[in-house]
Recover the amino acids of this structure.
């Protein structure tokens, strides 16, 4: 299993974006036998990138959320995401009808102190796995209902940079 640091993630994201555009420009130029530097070609290039990535697949496993402490509506969720595609996928946003807001966070040690930081976007390399667990990456859930009980389910939607959404059911667990 592979955990990625934030600076490395930003670097991967930039390389991925540049690499996809460069590769597609080369392929389109070779196939068409003409220059692809005009605005119309670049617009169709973006469509081609989205189409080629639409078959990308993310598999979620071992997904659960902690029930909030009484009197609070904030908690965390943990799961394992596997990128089964042959390309890197950007995880951009999470949402749910049962939760007001969801943010991807990570714990980092800085100067001997553990800190929690929001992660705006995460790039999951092809064939890799992101394990969200206590003390590492996790989802912060804001606005959970106090009426949720152990075993109750919520569903979150994961939005990818490809435009695809992945529905992920999570089971509630009491904090022990």
């Amino acid at each position: 299993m592979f955990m990625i640091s934030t600076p490395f993630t930003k670097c991967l994201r930039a390389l991925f974006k540049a690499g996809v555009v460069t590769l597609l420009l080369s392929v389109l130029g070779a196939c068409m036998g003409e220059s692809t530097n005009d605005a119309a070609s670049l617009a169709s290039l973006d469509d081609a990138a989205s189409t080629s990535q639409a078959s990308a697949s993310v598999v979620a496993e071992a997904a659960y959320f902690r029930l909030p402490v009484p009197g609070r509506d904030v908690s965390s969720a943990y799961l394992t995401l596997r990128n089964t595609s042959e390309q890197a996928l950007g995880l951009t946003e999470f949402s749910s009808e049962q939760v007001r807001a969801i943010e991807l966070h990570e714990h980092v040690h800085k100067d001997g102190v553990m800190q929690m930081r929001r992660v705006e976007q995460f790039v999951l390399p092809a064939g890799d796995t992101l394990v969200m667990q206590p003390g590492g990456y996790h989802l912060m859930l804001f606005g959970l209902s106090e009426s949720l009980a152990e075993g109750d389910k919520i569903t979150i939607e994961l939005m990818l940079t490809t435009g695809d959404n992945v529905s992920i059911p999570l089971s509630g667990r009491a904090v022990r």
User: Anything to note?
Assistant: The beta strands are 58-66, 74-83, 89-95, 101-110, 113-118, 122-124, 129-131, 138-142, 153-160, 165-173.
